[in-house]
Amino acid sequence: MNRNKRSVVLNLKRPAALAALHRMIDAADVFVHSMRPSSAERLGIGYAAVAARNPRIIYAFAPGYRQDGPYRDRPAYDDVIQGESGIAGITELATGEPRYLPTVIADKFCGHILASSIGMALVHRERTGEGQEVQVPMLETMMSFNLIEHLWSGAFDQPMGALGYDRALTPYRRPFKTKDGYVCLMATSDVQWRGFFAACDRPELSENPHYATLAEHTHDVLTAMGYGAGEIEQMSR
User: DSSP string of 15-65?
Assistant: First the structure.
């Protein structure tokens, strides 16, 4: 993970160490930190101080919360953001118990967004000569991550339904157990279903009226999930 990197440890409370960092800032394209903004300001490396030394620099950080809100100086950790952004609650909708994803999804995803944002800031600088400050607040970033399928229905003045995307939450969306392990698959067209039945050595199922077309198969699945005829008809429109 640290291949081709150079590193140095600096205690920024020491004047000599801060001076060393300033020399690096003077020649840098990008400055990234993971401190709370108030901590960076106290150490003398807030955006204003850094940009005063190097106006072309891209100054980037990923605080826990947006900087124009009441929680701007709160610390944040992956587990806390998974809870606040709804990930743990979405897991409860799927399994009946709130759980974190078994990975540091907030840390990693926000890191990707930060890197992408830095790239765009560098493009802007190449076109205009201007440096800038880049902020990627973790909570709002992860809320956006969940918005597209799970939270959109609650984003209106009059909510348009319950939170959570049924297809992602159904217990049928899982790896399926076989004699020698588990299989992950997804068939979304009549051709793919016929291929699936052939791979299972059951090609005759393609002629079964319940499986012959995707429309019939979807109707049966939705019925098994508890949807009524009126709801299924509305979904099909």
Answer: HHHHHHHHHHHHT-SEEEE-S-HHHHHHTT-SHHHHHHH-TT-EEEE--SS
CATH 3.40.50.10540 placement within the chain:
15-154
Query: pTM of this prediction?
Result: 0.82
CA neighbours closer than 13 Å in the CB half-sphere of residue 32: 11
CA distance linking residue 32 with residue 61, whole number of Å: 6
Cα angle 130, 131, 135; round to 5:
135
Q: Is 66 helix (H, G, I), strand (E, B) or coil?
A: coil
Adjacent-strand bridge partners of 33: 61
Strand 58-61 versus strand 30-33 pairing type: parallel
54 neighbors 26 (Cβ within 8 angstroms): yes
What are the tens digits of pLDDT across the range 35-60? Answer: 988 999 999 999 999 999 999 999 99
| CATH fold for the domain made of 15-154 | Rossmann fold (3.40.50)
pLDDT digit string (tens) for 68-112? 999 998 999 999 999 999 999 999 999 999 999 999 999 999 999
